[in-house]
Write the structure tokens for this entry.
Amino acid sequence: MLRLFKACLLVLFLISTTTVVNSDTSWITKKSDKSKQEIKLEKKIKKDEIKKKSEWIKKKKIKNKEKFKKQKKENKSWITKKSKKETKEDKKKLKEYINIDNLPKSEFYFVAQSSNDEFYYGYVNSSKDSEKIKINNVTYNNRSDGFGYLDDGKTTCKVNSKLALVFNNLGGQVVVECVDGTEFNGIYVQQGQIGYGTGVSNKGDDINFKFYPTKVEALAQYKNLQDKNRLIDAPTAGPEEQDFKDIKPLGKYYALLIGNSKYAKWASLTSPKNDIEGVYEVLKNNYDFEKIIKVNDANRSDIFNAFQKLNKLTTDEDYVLIYYSGHGMRTENQAFWIPVEAEQEWGGGSWINTNDIHVAISKLRAKHILLLSDSCYVGNAFKGNNDEIKETQKKNLDKQFIENILLERARWFISSGGNSQVMDEVVKGHSLFAYKLIDLLKNNKTYLTSDVLFSEISKYNSQFLFSGGYNQSPVIGTVDTWGHLGGHFVFLPKK
């Protein structure tokens, strides 16, 4: 009886095991089939993406070729027979110069990368018989000639550049002609000692380049590009995110956003309302701001009341961002923000002299203050000391540096232009300045300092110089009278 009972149990066990196995097998088979479908779908999506990308690249190349032809036609006026050509001596030295380390002593050096991942480097020297340009008590020749080299070890290129004054800033055009038939046309803008440029080739490729005053800087950039294989114009790579997650500011972050669009007696503006709304959203969603004061269509009283409110909220340990978007004006060597009720003629008493803004900011209690002014004619009114301007967002920059500059008092300003007009609506309902500002804030994954912010906005603006009619050059500086002591305003994303 016991044996029969055990036998029955064994049979039941085998039946149940078989059922489970079959069930599991059935599940596994179905899951496997589903995975195959998913893989197939993923492959299709990837294939479609590659196709779309390929079509986009093809269209981009066609567009670039058309742009190249137009620029080449315009450049014929200044590329003359006087431009330097290869001499027998130059040709003898080409083999030696193919190595970037061996480039001759020159006034300027350049490094470039195309969207086809081709790397170029070379040098230019001023043409002494060309016209003179004077800026900031320094005189430049408006033409430069030299040679460039593709890093294939055999391709050489003739390089010609022409300088021009663009709203009191140096900018220029560049033409490159290589022995393999490749040609480039480009534009650049000078920021400090470095020239940032973009261009297109006769093959439809994009090209990004930089001019440097020393061979050491050019060599470092070239090796960096070779190591990282990335475009010069790509957003500056920050350190790894995990390295900065535990950085803790001393105080809290506050922001004052002023956007004036609807004017009573001045022309209405489109972008200010969009600009401050865009900045507001990215600050709210991506950053830990304790309070964001947003003021639309502000009169004179609204603006100064907002400053007072901000001062009451903040302490000596806090970080303050101020952003103004609206009309600006300059008259009798004085610059002004224009509130919405202002008369067109000066003297009505409602125009806000930037000297009053200076006073309001100097009274604010904060560790760091960054003023952003997106308005005409007022950039130079805030201009202070720019000796400290240097890009801080570098791959090898350690966390200790960021922690240190968070401790030092900082008073920075950035304006969308100097003593000149700036554009209203340019890109997707935003001003040129605001569009790039919002983009940088959205894509910041580690930290973003005031000087890096300026550098990236300037490079973006340079793409519009000599094309499309957008001529404005941002201005940056620190202001000692506001209490600057060597720090940097730092945007730290939410943890």
Remarks:
- The chain is about 35% helix and 25% strand.
- The longest helix spans residues 2-75.
